[in-house]
Specification:
about 475 residues; single chain; elongated; Rossmann fold; alpha/beta; five-stranded parallel β-sheet
Length: about 475
Amino acid sequence: MAFEIDILITYADADNQPAESGNGWVTDFKRFLELMLQQVLGEKPKMLLKSEHDSITGGDVKKIGILIPILSPSFIASGECLDTLEEFLKAAKSDFPRVFKVLKKPITFEEQPTKLRELIGFDLYNMDLDTGRIEDYKDFFSTEAEQNFWMKMVDLAYEIHESLISLEQKSKRADVKPLFSRRSIYLAETGHDLTIQRNIIKRELQRHGYKVLPDHTLPQNVNELKKVIKKEVEESSLSIHLIGNSYGEIPEGSDKSIVDIQNQIASEKSSLLKDKSAFSRLIWISPHLNHASEKQIAFIESIKRDMASTEGAEILQTPLEDFKNIVREELIEVGIDKKLNRHTEEAVQNGKVKVYMLYDKLDEKDVEPIKKFIAKSGFAVLEPSFEGGLLTLRQHHITNLRNFDAAIIYQGGVNDQWVRMKLLDLLKAPGFGRRKPVKGKAIISKKEEKLDISSYKSHNIMVIDGSKKDSLDSLKVFLEELK
């Protein structure tokens, strides 16, 4: 059934007293939200204000799609406001949110109505960081409001947009089971420094039809928290983690942050999956860590070096805009499968066993004789690309990771860390949709000091001493085994 009222905003009278502009805060909030929703929905929604003393009946409640309670100390103290909320919650049983809590004043978790605590809140007050003083945004169109208030309002508008679409679909297809469910993505909670950036990515994913989890406030107790995260990561086919300067909030009963715990749980899922293409992870690490604490630096280093925490993951330490472009390319605009079709056809057309030769540009000349030797031995040689932008280079690399049969990493002028990162790329190749086993992996190293790959001993990697004259003989043995 279609609702007579799309959105009802309920509030305490004290929060809508006329200001200098002539309107009360709630009235201006409704007008501003109406404008934003009109842009997002393409049409003006049916919105209504309800003060604490306006009466509402059970029958009227069923005609409302979404409720926005304006939370404040006055709202919490008002029996009428709480009754309206309770009446709506009774009628609005749903598997997606139909209540969006807006905080006009700070309200602690414990002070909030029990059924609203787990919902994500939209804080629409201004806090002076120097004095700690809380103020309303008096002018919704001021520069200050544009920088802080508008971003939260845009978030709210997109969340409401999602819910209204779901309500409309449910109304039209009440008796029809959907043929497929939307793909879920776990967009991990971040430290305070990346909250806005996370919300931008979240909105873009939602606009393109993805269900983004978590879609509620996470529990504060570590045991409950882990249960919820595990459940939602299990529902997802991808997790995205943004790591910045802030280590993040530490829940009760834990010495690890929520950011850390989410990464650990996503890693555990990756390690247990036989089909690595069923779940993948994107981890972005800020290239600017000047203000990171020692604990955060240690956490970041552990992500980079710990095989367990990076299994099935792609780690990128690039400018955030580049990372957003990668997310957009991979999940939104084209989808990685469609993007790589042309390259896939080129890679398999000759029917030969394909050897991916991984090397750095500074070793390009040294690698030439090795590539010729491999080609003369009857193999197709896949190579890295060094021309083009970040997205082009990455797509080329992923194409090769999906299609190689065997891989050889060449170490000439590069350090051991570079080699380990390339090994990690090979091991996480299934996360990019690879469907066939790897026939062989080898490293050709010209370094005098022996390369330590003891942590990879279970992965059957052949190490060839590239400084010896008979190194090509060792390479020949490796190639023969591929046949």
